[in-house]
Design a protein that fits this description.
462 residues; six-stranded mixed β-sheet; 6 strands; 51% helix; elongated
Length: 462
C-alpha cells in the first residue's frame, strides 16, 4: 500500500510542478535553474541536499507568495532528478489584528502548492509567542498579547504616538523576536531564504547595530555572520524596549553557533523570479494593500491605516455635542469604525484607550492633560486637580484612579512613571532611536509636539 501511495503522491507532485512551470515566464524558468544550482552548492553538493533545511518567514504580500512558489518549484524539480530534495520550513507570523482574509490567503497558497501533506514541508504559525502547526486558527485571546499591548501604549505615551512611530521600527523588533522564537527549540535550519534586496538588508543591519550599541551591546560587529545570533540579540533588545520603566539589564553576548544560520539572498534573480506574471493567478488573488515593501511584508498594512484614521478623528475640531457622544466610561465608542475596533480588540485595547495614547496627555507632568479633557472628556475637567494628585501619588478619590486606569489601559504605577518621566538614560536613547524610523526603517522627521496631540477648537465650548 505504501508503494502505491508513494507513486500516487509522486504523480501529484509532478502535476503541481508542471502547473507551476506553465505559469512561469521563460525568464522565470531560466532563473529557476540558476536557483536550483545555487541551492545545491549551498547544501555542499547534490549528495547533501536531502539534509539541507531552508527556513522561510512568510509574509502577506505578493513577493512572499511568489518566492514560496519558486522555492516549491525548486524543491519539486530536484525531487524529480534525485531520490531526495531539500526540506522547507515555512513560518507564518501572525501579528495582533491580522485579518482572517490573510490567513485564508495563506491557506489558499499552501493548497495550490500541495504543501500540507508533503513530509518534506513543515508549515507553522507563530502567534503570541507560541508555535503551532499551521491551520485556520481561532482568534488568540487578547491577554496573550499583553506584552505587545503594554509596549505599544508605553511607547506612545512616553516617546511618540504617531502611527508611523508606534508601528514602525519597534515592530521590526517584534518580528525579530518572533524569528528568535521560531528558531528556539526547533531543529536547526541551515539557511534563511529572503527576497529582501541588498539595500534593505544593509539598512536593516545598520539599524540593528545602532540599536544594540545604544543598549550597551559591544558585540554587534559580527552580527552579519549568523542570522540566528542577530535575531537572538534583537529579541533581547525587544524585551528591553518593551519594558522601558524597568531597570535595564545587560544584553547577552553569546558566541556564534558552530554552524551559523546563513542567509540566502537572491538579489540577481529577484527581477525575474518575483516579476509580474501568471504565478499570481495560480496562487490566488491579492488585495491591493498587499503590495508592500520587503521590510513591511510581515505587518498587516490595515493596522497602520486604522491608526491613521483614528488619529485623523482625534485631530478634528470637536464640538461640545460630539465630545459628549464620544465619552464612554465602559470603554466602548460607537464613533469608531469596525476596522479600528478589530485592531484595538486584538491588542486588548479599546478605542478610548487608543485615543488617549494618541493624545499622550500624561507625559511632562501632565502637560497635555487639560487639553485632552477639553477635547474628549469635558465632564472630567472639574476633576483635573484630583487627576494630577493621583498621577503624583498623592491621596485622591478612588473613582479618579479608576478613571485613569480604564481610560489609558495602563496601571497607576506606569502612569505615574510616565507623568514623572522616570526613564533610564539608556532606555530613553533606545526609544528615541526607535521613534526615528518607520516600518520600512526610513527616516521619520521629529514629531512637531512632544506632548498631547493638537486638538483644534478645544476652547469652543469650554
Amino acid at each position: 500500500m505504501s508503494i502505491v501511495h508513494d507513486q500516487a503522491m509522486h504523480y501529484i507532485y509532478q502535476q503541481v510542478l508542471e502547473r507551476l512551470l506553465s505559469h512561469m515566464s521563460q525568464a522565470q524558468r531560466a532563473s529557476l535553474q540558476l536557483l536550483i544550482q545555487r541551492l545545491l552548492v549551498a547544501a555542499g553538493g547534490p549528495e547533501y541536499i536531502g539534509t539541507f533545511r531552508l527556513l522561510v518567514m512568510q509574509g502577506g504580500d505578493r513577493r512572499s507568495a511568489r518566492l514560496l512558489a519558486i522555492l516549491r518549484a525548486a524543491q519539486l524539480s530536484i525531487a524529480l532528478r534525485a531520490p531526495v530534495t531539500f526540506q522547507l520550513r515555512v513560518v507564518v507570523i501572525c501579528v495582533p489584528g491580522v485579518s482572517s482574509a490573510l490567513i485564508e490567503h495563506h491557506e489558499q497558497s499552501f493548497n495550490a502548492l500541495f504543501m500540507h501533506d508533503d513530509v518534506r514541508v513543515q508549515l507553522q504559525t507563530l502567534e503570541a509567542g507560541v508555535i503551532t502547526p499551521f491551520s485556520r486558527p481561532a482568534a488568540v485571546a487578547a491577554e496573550h498579547w499583553n506584552l505587545s499591548r503594554d509596549a505599544m501604549l508605553l511607547f506612545g505615551h512616553l516617546v511618540d504616538a504617531r502611527p508611523e512611530a508606534v508601528l514602525g521600527s519597534r515592530v521590526q523588533l517584534e518580528l525579530a523576536a518572533a524569528l528568535r522564537l521560531a528558531l528556539e527549540g526547533q531543529p536547526w535550519a541551515d539557511a534563511l531564504v529572503t527576497a529582501m534586496p541588498l539595500r534593505q538588508r544593509r539598512r536593516y543591519l545598520a539599524w540593528a547595530r545602532r540599536g544594540l550599541r545604544l543598549a550597551g551591546d559591544a558585540g554587534s560587529a559580527t552580527l552579519h555572520h549568523c542570522m540566528a545570533t542577530l535575531a537572538d540579540r534583537l529579541g533581547q533588545l525587544h524585551a528591553v524596549a518593551g519594558s522601558p520603566l524597568d531597570e535595564p539589564g545587560t544584553l547577552g553576548c553569546e558566541p556564534l553557533a558552530q554552524v551559523p544560520l546563513r542567509v540566502i539572498a537572491l538579489d540577481d534573480l529577484l527581477p525575474q523570479l518575483l516579476g509580474d506574471g501568471e504565478l499570481d493567478q495560480m496562487m490566488g488573488c491579492f488585495e491591493p494593500s498587499r503590495e508592500t515593501l520587503p521590510l513591511a511584508a510581515l505587518l498587516d498594512p490595515l493596522a497602520l491605516a486604522q491608526l491613521h484614521e483614528l488619529r485623523a478623528q482625534c485631530s478634528k475640531q470637536a464640538t461640545p455635542r460630539q465630545t459628549l457622544h464620544l465619552v464612554c466610561h465602559k470603554g466602548v465608542s460607537m464613533q469608531h469604525s469596525p476596522q479600528q475596533v478589530r485592531f484595538a480588540n486584538a491588542y486588548g485595547i479599546n478605542p478610548i484607550q487608543l485615543t488617549c495614547m494618541l493624545h499622550s496627555p500624561f507625559a511632562d507632568q501632565g502637560k497635555g492633560l487639560e487639553l485632552f479633557l477639553q477635547c474628549c472628556h469635558r465632564d472630567m475637567l472639574v476633576a483635573l486637580p484630583y487627576l494630577h494628585r493621583a498621577l503624583q501619588g498623592k491621596p485622591c478619590p478612588e473613582a479618579v484612579k479608576d478613571w485613569l486606569v480604564s481610560t489609558s489601559g495602563l496601571t497607576l504605577v506606569q502612569l505615574r512613571a510616565i507623568y514623572a518621566g522616570r526613564l533610564h538614560r539608556s532606555a530613553r536613547r533606545l526609544l528615541a532611536n526607535l521613534a526615528r524610523r518607520d516600518v520600512h526603517l526610513a527616516w521619520l522627521a521629529p514629531a512637531p509636539e512632544t506632548g498631547a496631540l493638537a486638538c483644534k477648537g478645544h476652547a469652543d465650548g469650554a
